[in-house]
Amino acid sequence: xxxxxxxxxxxxxxxxxxxxxxxxxxxxxxxxxxxxxxxxxxxxxxxxxxxxxxxxxxxxxxxxxxxxxxxxxxxxxxxxxxxxxxxxxxxxxxxxxxxxxxxxxxxxxxxxxxxxxxxxxxxxxxxxxxxxxxxxxxxxxxxxxxxxxxxxxxxxxxxxxxxxxxxxxxxxxxxxxxxxxxxxxxxxxxxxxxxxxxxxxxxxxxxxxxxxxxxxxxxxxxxxxxxxxxxxxxxxxxxxxxxxxxxxxxxxxxxxxxxxxxxxxxxxxxxxxxxxxxxxxxxxxxxxxxxxxxxxxxxxxxxxxxxxxxxxxxxxxxxxxxxxxxxxxxxxxxxxxxxxxxxxx
Length: 345
What we know:
There is one protein chain. This protein is mainly α. It has three domains: 156 residues, no CATH class; 82 residues, no CATH class; 40 residues, no CATH class. The strands form two sheets. A two-stranded antiparallel ribbon has the order 1-2. Strands 3-4 form a two-stranded antiparallel sheet. Strand 1 and strand 2 form a beta hairpin. Helix 3 runs parallel beside helix 5. The model has no long low-confidence stretch (mean pLDDT 94).
């Protein structure tokens, strides 16, 4: 995620405990030390709001401002400033997730960091075939945290965060609710703006045109209809070498491709500049689930970490498009059973 340019907590060290733990089966235990700008979450404020006093909540909010937004204390309404900035950061983060096909898997309020970093990696995974309903987590029976639902779930979480801040926003509850609603309701617009900007970049577009959204949505509809691989479709477009897949052989795609080429021709930037932008916006490799599973199997069952090391080497430069990454670009075979992740994954 860090190599993809997505705000994230980081792994400092993993230490084996030598003991077994019970997950979906017995697994070797370990302790992961992770680092982040902070581990303050929406859930932290929910806890303080329910179990603490108003002064406790104020102390927590002040600490959050000092840690993440120094200088904000001088704002006319620092707690409204806090809410607004958290909303902005989450809009950026969720857009970045969607652009690379990342599915967090368990977006409860305790897993949303106020710093705007991805945190609490558990049943997460990357999407292969494009489908907004994609779910990997074994416990997400009803698809609440499916790929296509992530923006709306983020908005729901932010509404819960806003609720905790109401006593601090304004002494008048009705006015506090108005202020909070105005900020939280702006999340969808902010998210959409960042997502559209990212999708334009993935298609080599530098400027904005009113028809861009339709062009983008039409491509996604075709990808869904013909079960195209999300990452590889954009990689093929990056090098203008449509692969031998069902999608690229259809008349519908040819028509879309012609519209895209015409759109590229209407901007002043050269095709080479568009190509460079696409290379920086479309990863060649992602941590594909079957490759991650191979690395886990080799490490756990055989004590062989070389498979993991080669995978990490390829993933460390996802936008490099180098020959050493070739073996990691292949999607899982169509016959592969749906991949399932667990909290211990």
